[in-house]
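If your schedule permits, I should be very grateful for your opinion on a structural question. Please examine both parts with care and let me know of anything in them that strikes you as inconsistent. The record follows directly beneath this note:
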Amino acid sequence: MVARTAQALRARGERMTRPRRAVVVALASTGGHLGAEAVLDAVAGIDPRVHRASVFRALHALSAAGVVQHVHEGHGSTVYHLRREPHLHAQCRSCGVMLDVRADLLDGVGEDLARELGFALDPGHVALSGTCATCLPRA
C-alpha cells in the first residue's frame, strides 16, 4: 500500500514524506474507519517523531491525492480510511457501526437530482444514517 501511495503522489508531483508514510501505514494496519484522534494515536505508535500538525497535513494531502477518503459521520465528526474500491458508507445512529455500501447504491437518486434540479450528488462524502440489523430489533 505504501508503494502504491508513493507512486500516486509522485504522479501528482508530490513526495511521500515521513508523516504521509506513517499515516498510510496506520490506516492500512487497521483497515477501518478512524477518527483523527485514532489516526494520531496509531501514528504515534509507528513514528513518535511525527508531529500532530504533520498528521493533519498528511491526511489532507492524502485525501486531495485520492489515496485517503474522509467521510463525515453524524454530528460533524470525520473518519478516514484508505481508498481501495469505491464504496459508500452507512452508519448506525444507535451503536455507531460504519458499514461499507456498494458504490452504485444511490446512482438513481443522483440521476434524478441531476435531471430535476441540476444538482450533482457527492454521496461518498457523508455517511447515510440509519439503524443497523443488530440494533433494529431493539429500536
Summary: The chain has five helices and six strands. The mean pLDDT is 91. The chain has two domains: 2-82, 87-138. The first helix runs from residue 2 to 11.
